[in-house]
Amino acid sequence: MTCPHCDAAVVAFAVPPDIREHAPAAETAICTRCLRTMPAAETDVSARDAAAAESVDFSAVDPVFPSGEAGVALALVCGHLESLALERESVETLIEHAERAGADVFAFLGRLDAADAAFDLDRRRAALLDLL
User: Which residues lie below 8 Å from residue 53, measured CB to CB, with a gap of 6+?
Assistant: First the structure.
């Protein structure tokens, strides 16, 4: 199970129906290095290998990820950060979902460590804080 962009490991998860329109697929994966999201099928993960939202463990991506639906929503946010200007509506919806699920988005963004992300995390963090 590796990222098709950078060959790093991925974490696969099932996307809850209420935010599925903001995901690349019902079973999505996030790269542990570049933070891109992609359909899990692109990483050779079968649908049965994608963890349910309530049991997915994002600690391989970064220990600051919350669990459950909040973590899923924030993983999807990360996947949209490469194109923040084009994906603003999805990002806003996903952030609201993460907050309703109990995540402290400001704290998450402040502690997320992603030196090898596909985007400039510091610039995207500043843009997101302006957005929120």
Answer: 13, 14, 15, 16, 68, 69, 71, 72
Q: How many CB atoms lie within 10 A of CB 107?
A: 11
- Measured between alpha carbons, how far is 86 from 7 in angstroms, rounded to an integer? 26
Q: Which residues of 15-50 are buried (b: 16+ CB within 10 A; e: fewer)?
A: bbeebeebbbbebbbbbbbbbbbbbbbebebeeeeb
Per the DSSP assignment, residues forming a β-bridge with 27 are 14
**Distance in angstroms (rounded) separating the CA atoms of residues 80 and 95:** 11
Whether residue 69 contacts residue 101, with contact meaning beta carbons closer than 8 Å, is answered with yes
For the cut 80, the answer to whether the pLDDT of residue 120 exceeds it is yes
What the block records as the tokens of 54 is 């309530």
Q: Average per-residue pLDDT in the chain?
A: 91
Residues 79-94: tens digit of each pLDDT:
999 998 899 999 999 9
In one-letter notation, the amino acid at residue 82 is E
- The tokens for 89 are 């509506």
- Least confident window among 38-47, 83-92, 93-102: 38-47
